[in-house]
Write a structure and sequence with these properties.
With 145 residues, the protein is an alpha+beta fold. The protein has a single domain, classed as GAF domain (Beta-Lactamase, 2-Layer Sandwich). It is built from 4 helices and 5 strands. It has a 3-stranded antiparallel sheet. Strands 4-5 form a two-stranded antiparallel ribbon. Strand 4 and strand 5 form a beta hairpin. Helix 2 crosses helix 4.
Length: 145
């Protein structure tokens, strides 16, 4: 099954509904790789992330992927020093583990300027029971560290 092909209609509907750019990312070793992207109708758009490898600890999709890994796999990925991309990048493994636990409770992750200054993202794990998310219900800012 081609995940990007299967996810395209869902991404198109979601992009129209929330008026934001929607990405589908998969785990590739120690990175998230975006395999599909649909731009929302808003006047502001981001660049194309398809095919780009991004840090798991500094992206919302990466945090969702990390949160759903077995504990040992999480530990292995957090054993090395975490790269700081901006002043807001979470590089403390303990704080990141706390954020990953919240991902499991809340069903989504968010990043505020952790990979790039000015880039704010929210990611949810896709499933048949994924809860709806709206910008109005999102937390204001994650703890930094």
């Amino acid at each position: 099954m081609d995940i990007s092909q299967q996810s395209r209609p869902v991404c198109e509907r979601l992009a129209a509904e929330v008026a934001e750019t929607i990405n589908v990312a998969i785990l590739d070793g120690d990175h998230a790789v975006n395999i599909d992207q649909v731009f929302g109708p808003s006047a502001l758009t981001t660049h194309n992330w398809v095919g780009q490898r991004t840090a798991l600890h500094a992206t919302s999709s990466g945090k969702v992927l990390l949160a759903h890994l077995p504990e040992e796999a999480q530990r292995q990925r957090l054993a090395a020093a975490l790269e700081r991309f901006t002043p807001r990048t979470v590089t403390d493994p303990g704080l990141l583990l706390t954020q990953l636990q919240l991902v499991l409770v809340n069903g989504f992750a968010y990043c505020v300027e952790e990979l790039e200054t000015g880039l704010n993202t929210v990611a949810a794990r896709c499933s048949r029971t994924t809860a709806r998310w709206s910008p109005r219900s999102a937390p204001r800012a994650p703890p930094s560290g």
